[in-house]
Design brief:
The complex is a heterodimer.
Chain A (H helix, E strand, L loop, with lengths): L3 E3 L4 E4 L4 E7 L6 E7 L6 E5 L5 E3 L2 E6 L4 E6 L8 E9 L2 E4 L3 E6 L1
Parallel strand pairs in A: 2-11
Antiparallel strand pairs in A: 1-3, 3-8, 4-5, 4-9, 6-7, 7-8, 9-10, 9-11
Chain B lengths: L3 E4 L2 E4 L5 E7 L5 E7 L5 E8 L5 E2 L10 E5 L2 E6 L8 E8 L7 E3 L3 E5 L1
Parallel strand pairs in B: 2-11
Antiparallel strand pairs in B: 1-3, 3-8, 4-5, 4-9, 5-6, 7-8, 9-10, 9-11
Classes of the chains: A mainly beta, B mainly beta.
């Protein structure tokens, strides 16, 4: 079983739509949670850390459900520039485990 | 966040040769990490490079194939030895932020093609 599982997509949505991604993780003792964004042929870049109480950064909202071991990312009012692959990442001590990514295509 | 550079940004190499990738950070960091991202796949950790000690390799990766150096707190190298086409991949170095959540920040990657 993979440490972190994500729906690979692609999610094809129109501009302005709201889209949500989920991710599940297998290690209940995982300590930190993140969403990264990776553009084609570029390195992953931190989008946001996911706090236990959930957190929001502009159009992006992240939630953590420890009991069910899943993390979510909600993107409101999608922009063309949001098109990318979104990686769910889980940390256990010094090890980071990456999901395979969810591809988002925002269409005009 | 740390500023990380990698050299070379890309290379095309012949089977059987070796390539050394350099990673430079603009601040001192305790741990540096080397990842591989094969086409269409997510990131796989190769090893953790600690200054002053041997690198710690993940299952499936060995020092003879991927020797790592960590001469100081701002620099590391990864060598891909005796390359085969299966080694064609993007190789990324990263560092911990050192903050409360210990986010990782990545270099721009080295795109390697082995013919």
């Amino acid at each position: 079983r993979k440490e972190v599982e994500q729906d690979p997509g692609p999610f094809n949505v129109p501009e302005g739509a709201t889209v949500a991604f989920n991710c599940t993780y297998s290690n209940s003792a995982s300590q930190s949670f993140f969403w990264y964004r990776q553009d084609c042929r570029k390195e992953p870049k931190l989008l946001m850390s996911v706090y236990s109480s959930g957190n929001e950064d502009g159009r992006f909202t992240a939630q953590l459900n420890r009991a069910s071991q899943y993390i979510s990312l909600l993107i409101r009012d999608s922009k063309l520039s949001d098109s990318a692959t979104y990686l769910c990442v889980v940390r256990y001590f010094n090890k980071f485990y990456f999901g395979s990514g969810t591809k988002l295509n925002v269409k005009p | 966040s740390a500023v990380i550079s990698q050299k070379p940004s890309r290379d095309i190499c012949q089977r059987g040769t070796s390539l050394t990738i350099q990673c430079q950070v603009d601040s001192q960091v305790t741990m540096m990490f080397w990842y591989r991202q094969q086409p269409g796949q997510s990131l796989t950790l190769i090893a953790t490079a600690n200054q002053g000690s041997e690198a710690t390799y993940e299952s499936g990766f060995v020092i003879d194939k991927f020797p790592i150096s960590r001469p100081n707190l701002t620099f590391s190298t990864l060598t891909v030895s005796n390359m085969s086409p299966e080694d064609s991949s993007i190789y990324l170095c990263s560092v911990d932020s050192g903050g409360d959540y210990n986010e990782q920040f990545f270099g721009p990657g080295t795109r390697l093609t082995v013919l």
